[in-house]
Amino acid sequence: AVLNGQVKEIPPDWDQRPVKTLVGKNFEQVAFDETKNVFVKFYAPWCTHCKEMAPAWEALAEKYQDHEDIIIAELDATANELDAFAVHGFPTLKYFPAGPGRKVIEYKSTRDLETFSKFLDNGGVLPTEEPPEEPAAPFPEPPANSTMGSKEEL
């Protein structure tokens, strides 16, 4: 199946920028490379959320460009048909960890550099985070007040 008669050729400079450009033709060989952890953004050129997260994606790619085994890539899902799976929403972020077995992990968390980095550093899982209200519980009152109180009593 060809979309609008376009079959995207692999751009000659697909790997010259920090964010690698994937098309249908090089997608599988890059994403399922057993020696690389590949984090791919499937986007649509007209999608606002994709545009909003583009700077974070670029920053992520720059941060990891010296890591031989981490590839940050993007694929225009409107122009490339993928046999491997369908992309239903944009942006869809998928992580293809190194190793055999063509594993795919869908990334569903916050789209910012810090969270992306944690996800990558942790091998494609986010460190388990407690619900937001949890961390406050052990410290019902600021310690400063209690020390001041005891000083006054002395």
Specify the CATH class of the domain at 20-122. Alpha Beta
Silhouette: globular
The rounded Rg comes to 21 Å
| Strands ordered across the widest β-sheet | 1-3-2-4-5
Q: What's the total count of β strands?
A: 5
N→C terminal distance = 82 Å
Oligomer designation: single chain
Strand-residue proportion: 15-25%
Helix content: 25-40%
Uncertain stretches of 5 or more adjacent residues: none
Largest sheet: 5 strands, mixed
Reported by name, the CATH topology of the domain at 20-122 is: Glutaredoxin
Order of helices and strands: EHEHEEEHH
Counted by DSSP, the helix tally is: 4
Per CATH, the superfamily of the domain at 20-122 is Glutaredoxin
CATH architecture identity of the domain at 20-122: 3-Layer(aba) Sandwich
List the helices and strands and how they pair.
Layout: E1 20-22, H1 24-31, E2 37-43, H2 48-63, E3 70-76, E4 92-96, E5 105-107, H3 113-121, H4 143-153
Parallel strand pairs: 1-3, 2-3
Antiparallel strand pairs: 2-4, 4-5
Explain briefly what this protein structure is:
By secondary structure, the chain is of the alpha/beta class. It has helices at 24-31, 48-63, 113-121, 143-153, and strands at residues 20-22, 37-43, 70-76, 92-96, 105-107.
3D architecture notes:
- Helices cover 29% and strands 16% of the residues.
- With 154 residues, the protein is an alpha/beta fold.
- The model has no long low-confidence stretch (mean pLDDT 84).
- Helix 2 links the parallel strand 2 and strand 3.
- The protein has a domain of 103 residues: Glutaredoxin.
- It has a five-stranded mixed beta sheet.
- The radius of gyration is 21 Å and the shape is globular.
- The protein contains four helices and five strands.
